[in-house]
Amino acid sequence: MDRGQAVDRRQPAEKLEADLLVVGGGAAGLATAVTAARQGLKVVLLERYGFCGGAAVAGLSGTICGLYAATDDRTAPPRQLVHGFVDDFIRAIERHDGLTPPIRYGKTFTRTHDPLAWRRAADDLIEAAGVRVLYHSTVTEALVEGGERIAGARAFTKEGAVRVEAAVTIDASGDADLTAMAGFDTVVGDNGRVQNPTMIFRIQDVDIGRFLAAQGEDSILGQHVTDEIARLHNSREYELPRSKIFLFPTPRPGELLCNCTRVIGRDGRELNAMKVADITEAEIMGRRQAAEYARFFKDRLPGCEKSWIGQTGVQVGVRQTRQIVGERLLSTDDVLRHAKDKDGIAISAWPVELHSGTKPRIEWVLDDHYEIPFGCFVPKRGESLLVAGRCLSADHVAMASARVTAQCFTYGQAIGHAAAIAVRDKVSPRSIKGRDIRAIMNRDGARLDG
Fold it and tell me: Is the pLDDT of residue 321 over 80?
């Protein structure tokens, strides 16, 4: 742009038309957009960063959690439960050497990914499916017709405003942003109390062999480390407010992914990422905590003597913000009693992993799984609108299990198929039956019935 040339922000918005608009390019948004495009829909994906990945990449969460069954049998090999679009993604990221084999996580397994490979895999899938993606696009307004129908969204780009009109719109923002912009009902955690955010980081120059020899194969570090962290924190030698920590080898040599911070305010309260002052404080405190934990690792953990922080998240890792009020609610009881549902469009055996206080609460779903109904993604208000991802309708505890990456891939695959039905058959998304989506998912490789 010439120095004297200015963009007139008052100019009319560029107008795009699509069958489907997807807001947010995390695991759920990516799976929604690609699945729908594969069914022949004209799809536009709006993403605020310059890459897809959401919490997995910008928040550096770094693992594909929720893939495997959980069991008390420590001799049992990994048993993958979740299939479908996630298998496509795994193949795509493995082409970029971006994924570890299964790594033990307590009573189950997970896989650690390289964030650059995640971005490239997403780009590959988007391009192959023919999705039109607009990176660096921040949604600012829901287009609402008659007070109820979502007709698309307006977004801000460096070039000016963009107006995307679509037959169906998917809120995959993670924070139910579009739903809230439209004025539809949302909830935040347990009466406003949410799981605390975390600043995930990576350390380099680790002697992984010595580290694993000392700590064992489990990425949840043992009680001896928990006790040492608590002792040093209480003695004020270090500032380490979370005692139970998770450290994962990554696809990169000499690197550990560190999920260990508990980002709280200077006054000791849990921070809510929906509040601008809180998330600003979380970013600052998160980086300080990352440095303090890295100092502890360097001083106290075998194999980490030469380690240093190579990367922190582009943003603090957010576990919970707004969620929709849906046609169905996934409850704590559904998770803990391993509920099955004829309208279930996804399955999960991931534990309740509730991050609040000095030590995460973990309750395992052993030798079984539960199912998440389609109605958890259908807002009670709002026509031509569905959601995908962690902003599903679930209570505070159930959400602490249902929010993870493998399930978000499956949610997106299911919602992409629902959008295709709605557009093709010219029906309201809320009129679609979950059992019909389930049948389509099984034909598309999800193996929901085993």
Answer: yes
Please indicate whether residue 189 or residue 176 has the higher confidence score (pLDDT). Answer: 176
Distances (CA, A) of 163 to 155, 182, 271: 6, 15, 34
**3-class SS string, the chain:** CCCCCCCCCCCCCEEEEEEEEEECCCHHHHHHHHHHHHCCCCEEEECCCCCCCHHHCCCCCCEECCCECECCCCCCCCCECCCCHHHHHHHHHHCCCCECCCEEECCEEEEEECHHHHHHHHHHHHHHHCCEEECCCEEEEEEEECCCEEEEEEEEECCEEEEEEEEEEEECCCCCHHHHHCCCCEEECECCECCCCECCEEEECCCHHHHHHHHCCCCECCHHHHHHHHHHHHHCCCCCCCCCCEEEECCCCCCEEEECCCCECCCCCECCCCCHHHHHHHHHHHHHHHHHHHHHHHHHCCCCCCCEEEEECCCCECCCCEEECECCCECHHHHHCCCCCCCEEEEECCCEEECCCCCCEEECCECCCEEEEHHHHCECCCECEEECCCCCCECHHHHHHHCCHHHHHHHHHHHHHHHHHHHHHCCCHHHCCHHHHHHHHHHCCCCCCC
Q: Enter the tokens of residue 346.
A: 């996804």
Spatial distance between the Cα atoms of 341 and 329, rounded to a whole number of angstroms:
12
- pLDDT for position 86: 98
pLDDT-derived band of residue 272, with 50, 70 and 90 as boundaries? confident
Q: How far apart are the first and last CA of the chain?
A: 57
Determine the CATH number of domain 14-68+114-192+320-443: 3.50.50.60
The token duo for 362 is: 């973990």
pLDDT-based confidence at 359, cuts 50/70/90?
A: low
Each domain of the chain, given as residue ranges in start order, spans 14-68+114-192+320-443, 201-312
